[in-house]
Amino acid sequence: MFFxxxxxxxxxxxxxxxxxxxxxxxxxxxxxxxxxxxxFPNHSLNKxxxxxxxxxxxxxxxxxxxxxxxxxxxxCEQIEIENLNIEFHIFGEGAEKIQIENYLQSNPSKxxxxxxxxxxxxxxxxxxxxxxxxxxxKKRIYGSVPSKLFEYSALGVPILYFGGGEGEDIVTENNLGxxxxxxxxxxxxxxxxxxxxxxxxxxxEMKKQVSEQAQSNFNxxxxxxxxxxxxxx
Length: 233
Fold this sequence. Notes:
Number of helices: 11
Order of helices and strands: HEHEHEHEHEHEHEHEHHH
Strand order of the largest sheet: 5-4-3-6-7-8
Number of strands: 8
Shape: globular
Oligomer: single chain
Largest sheet: 6 strands, parallel
Distance between the termini: 28 Å
Structural class: alpha/beta
Helix content: 40-55%
Radius of gyration: 19 Å
Strand content: 5-15%
């Protein structure tokens, strides 16, 4: 706490990735000059072509670190999609990789598919052909906003958010998809039932809406321009 307050006190300007962070700093130093800086992607590089595959079931995916904080092994154990028009695809590496592989080998009927780590360019192309991104955290982390919210939105991918905190507000306020309380697997499975009833054309309309929201509200160039006008840089 001493070093935290010392750093904030000496800083001329503070950039925070969430409003929770800025509010925390203002409680310590009410007059400190603070600005919000989101981890927006470069849209010109990441914007994908919106895709939908009518012949496939709804394909939910997780892509990223398979660590304890994300809890993907527990997601695999708890989700109930065997009788739904949904598949779950996993991409990544991490501490839970072996557990996930062993669990899926023992439970082939779960309709969960593990793809390992893919090269970034190929992964982005693959993800844009899928339908919904799962963004989970085992526990709500104060001040955190997963950058995946902005990355997937830029790709036009609806989000099933399962991480708590300010991320819930971002998903809800921008109509990016669905929000489920952290570790509430009953609610998660109820939401998956509702998702399974969607037609692919409805999902495609959602993709267009999410893409439009990202272009309007998660724009890196406009964010930098605003900060420059405020003499941050």
